[in-house]
Amino acid sequence: MSQKIPSAGAAQALPGHPFVAYHGTSLQVESVSLSQLAAEHGTPLFVYSKASMLAALGAYQRGFAGRHAQICYAMKANSSLGVLQVFAAAGCGFDIVSGGELERVLAAGGDAAKIIFSGVGKTRAEMRQALQAGIGCFNVESEAELDVLSQVAESLGLRAPVSIRVNPNVDPKTHPYISTGLKDNKFGVAHEDTLRIYQHAASLKGLQVVGIDCHIGSQITEATPYLDAMDRVLDLVASIEAAGMALAHIDFGGGLGINYNNDAPPAADALWAQLLRKLDERGYGQKKLMIEPGRSLVGNAGVCVTEVLYVKPGEHKNFCIIDAAMNDLPRPAMYQAFHAIVPLLAESAATPEARYDVVGPICESGDWIGRDRSLAVKAGDQLAVLSAGAYCMSMSSNYNTRGRAVELLVDGAKVHVIRERESAADQMRLERLVTL
Length: 436
Ligand SMILES: *Cc1c(COP(=O)(O)O)cnc(C)c1O
Hints:
Blueprint: E1 11-14, E2 17-23, E3 26-29, E4 32-33, H1 34-41, E5 45-49, H2 50-63, E6 69-74, H3 81-89, E7 93-96, H4 99-107, E8 115-117, H5 124-133, E9 137-140, H6 143-155, E10 160-167, E11 189-190, H7 194-203, E12 207-213, H8 224-242, E13 249-251, H9 268-281, E14 288-291, H10 295-298, E15 302-312, E16 318-322, H11 331-335, E17 341-343, E18 354-359, E19 368-375, E20 382-385, E21 406-411, E22 414-419, H12 424-428
Parallel strand pairs: 5-21, 6-7, 6-14, 7-8, 8-9, 9-10, 10-11, 10-12, 12-13, 13-14, 16-18
Antiparallel strand pairs: 1-2, 2-3, 3-4, 5-15, 15-16, 15-20, 17-20, 18-19, 21-22
The structure holds pyridoxal-5'-phosphate.
Residues 74, 76-77, 95, 118, 215, 218, 253-256, 292-296 line the site of pyridoxal-5'-phosphate (PLP).
């Protein structure tokens, strides 16, 4: 696909990226030129817009205006401390999936009482750590986990607040690796077992049942799966409460998609207007509501800036070899995901356009970032890989002993370094040479 470059003079935001725009021929995040940032900090380089994150959060906050609601940022989407600080300062809670993530939230100044702990494989040590920190709720994913959590809480003389993740068995119509609410997924408990498992939870001395939750998948671009899941969850709420167990909150998970490639997900406030209508109709509009958005809060707030190292023509394919790779941007290799790729400088016709596979330097054929893209590029040019705020840095690795990239947070004209470039020495720090 080819990217339309606006005419000089006009500032025009890129599709889905309200705070990334060409000003004249130069691509900016908020008021800062990406070429300047690349010159100063080198590439590959992640740049995030604070205003974009707050605007995305604002859409949810508008959607829930006047309701008793708590937004918990699903931090696995991007767990960098500087990003967490933005959400903590805005009053967000956090959805965590490990003890490491708990430590990050606390280091970023997040409120422990607004933390919910998801995931199918919590260890006893992680349960203890979270209980001692005083988190708001454990989202439990199996009956066996309930028993272990109750034991751990009792051993500390505490009661663990719990919600049980139910599997509504609706198809979110997304990539199979990121759909989580179908019968055969490892997540949650089956609809038909839910009431019995709630009764079991209520009988355990170390637990206090406080809610119910679900999460049906990720990159969801339609309202229907949410509406269907809500119906299924509310049926369960009715039967659980009829059996005498009061539920203080209902948590509808995350999963709202973003625009990667002409995707048109509903806006968070419009989606929630629809969902709240259903909740009200069914008489649950006054309950405490929780949600766990990740991607939709950060995905299109970030870009990854990279430099073209080589252009390599081939018989059937041309390759554009860049200095970012699957260790920085794992989604194409993992999910065959699409990220738009645009030039930092919208040049006039000096370089001819051609079709390229955009690939990284890693020694794997899976190390591609974009396939069959129309680009006018030569060695030394810089490109921005879009939609790089979610599930990129947080999934990054050191494969091929590549250091993690620099991360910058842009706030208007201000630039904060939130992660320095990782050196080889950083990577080797925990390793030990042996005497052979
Ligand atoms: C990953 C995850 C989320 C966030 O999903 P997004 O698609 O990033 O919004 C929310 N809840 C749970 C339990 C998750 O595993």
